[in-house]
Structures are given as C-alpha cells and as structure tokens.
Amino acid sequence: MAAEEKSRDGPLDADPEAAIADWVRHVRFKKKTFGGVDEADVFKKIEELNRLYETLLLQERAKYKALLEDARAGGAADG
Which tens digits make up the pLDDT trace of 8-28? Predict the structure, then answer.
C-alpha cells in the first residue's frame, strides 16, 4: 500500500477534529488512465471519512452522556 493511501482511521487522538482535518488534507485519490479519478477509490475514501465521523460522534455521545449522568446525580444529591 502506498504511503498516500495509508489508512488514517485508527483511534482518534485528543483532538479528533484535528485528526479528521489532517485526514482530509492528506487524502489522495487514484487517478484514471484518461483523466479524472477512480470512482471506486472515491467511494472507499468517503466510507473511510464516514467511519472517522462515526467514531467522533460515538465519543461525543459518550462524553455528553457521562456529563448528563453526572449532572443528574449532582442534582439528586442537592435536592
């Protein structure tokens, strides 16, 4: 696998938005022989980007769920 095709969909680091922006900056598409890009490769890259966003979404949901549960537990102790 070429360096520019290396998968960047591993665990997102402390700044997931930066990880996605980095992926977008470095993504490269396979070229077709007579101009343009390979459609299958474009769809593969879109799926990879979607996985990155899904991972980010799951992380954000877990974070906000924990915050909400913490706020509810704090409110129950106060009231």
Answer: 445 556 688 888 899 999 999
DSSP string, 25-71: HH---PBPTTSSB-HHHHHHHHHHHHHHHHHHHHHHHHHHHHHHHHH
| Residue 45 forms part of a structural domain | yes
User: What's the number of domains the chain is made of?
Assistant: 1
What is the predicted pLDDT for the residue at 4? 40
For residue 63, is it within any domain?
yes
The verdict on pTM exceeding 0.85 is no
The first and second tokens of residue 75, run together, are: 């409110």
Nearest-Å Rg of the Cα atoms of the chain is 19
